[in-house]
Amino acid sequence: MGNGSNNYVVTKSHITYAAASQIVGAGLDAANEMGINAAIVVTQGTGEIVAVASTPNGNPRGWRGGLAKASVAAGLGISTEQFLEKRLTKDEVLWRALSNNPDNMFVPGGIPLKVDGAVVGAVGVSGGHYEDDAKVAHAVVDAFDVLMAS
Questions:
Q1: Could you tell me the residue range of the domain that residue 74 belongs to?
Q2: What's the total number of domains in the chain?
Q3: Is residue 46 one of the residues assigned to a domain?
Q4: What is the per-residue pLDDT for 94?
Q5: Model's pTM, two decimal places?
Q6: Lower CB count within 10 Å: N or C terminus of the chain?
Q7: How would you write 130-141 as a 3-class SS string?
Q8: pLDDT tens figures, 77-131
C-alpha cells in the first residue's frame, strides 16, 4: 500500500474497557457523595457502549438515557449542555427535528472524552436532575483526564 491509501482509510482511537471501567467508578463515587441515583454509560467515539454502571437504587432502564446523552456528545464532540445552550435554544426547527429521535437526548449529562482534541469516547449520565447528571458526568471526565495524564 502506498501513500494514497491514507485518502481512503481513517484510523480512530477509542477508549478501552480498562479505562472506561476505572472512570465509571469515579462517577459512581460522585453520585453516592451527592446522594443521588445515576446510570453511567461510557461509549467509544462512535457511540457504542464500552461500560455501564448504576447506583444500587438506580432505575434499571436509566442506562438508556445515559447512552442517548453519550451518543450525542460523541457524535457532536461537545457536551449536550453546550449544544443545547449554543444551538438548540436558538433554533426551534432544529430542536423539533433532533428531539424527535428517541436515540438522542439533548439535556445536560453527556460529555465527550478527548485526547489531543480528538473524541475517543463519551460519558452519559441519567437518573437524577439534569444538573446533577452533568456534575456526575464531569467527575467521570475529570477522572479520564487524570488517567490520561498519568
A1: 12-149
A2: 1
A3: yes
A4: 72
A5: 0.88
A6: C
A7: HHHHHHHHHHHH
A8: 999 898 887 776 677 767 666 676 767 777 899 999 999 999 999 999 999 999 9
CB 111 within 8 A of CB 122: yes
Q: Would you say residue 17 has pLDDT above 50?
A: yes
Q: Looking at residue 16, which CATH number applies to its domain?
A: 3.30.450.150
Residue 29 near residue 136, CB atoms below 8 Å = no
Is residue 96 domain-resident?
yes
Query: How far apart are alpha carbons 77 and 120 in whole angstroms?
Result: 10
β-partners of residue 42 are 51, 123
Tell me, rounded to whole angstroms, the distance of Cα 35 from its chain centroid. Answer: 21
Count CB neighbours of 108 within 10 A: 24
Could you give the maximum distance between any two Cα atoms of the chain, in Å?
57
Rg (CA), the chain: 16
As a dihedral over the C-alpha atoms of residue 95, residue 112, residue 75, residue 4, rounded to 10 degrees, the angle is 150
Amino acid at site 63:
W
Q: Looking at the domain assignment, is residue 4 inside a domain?
A: no
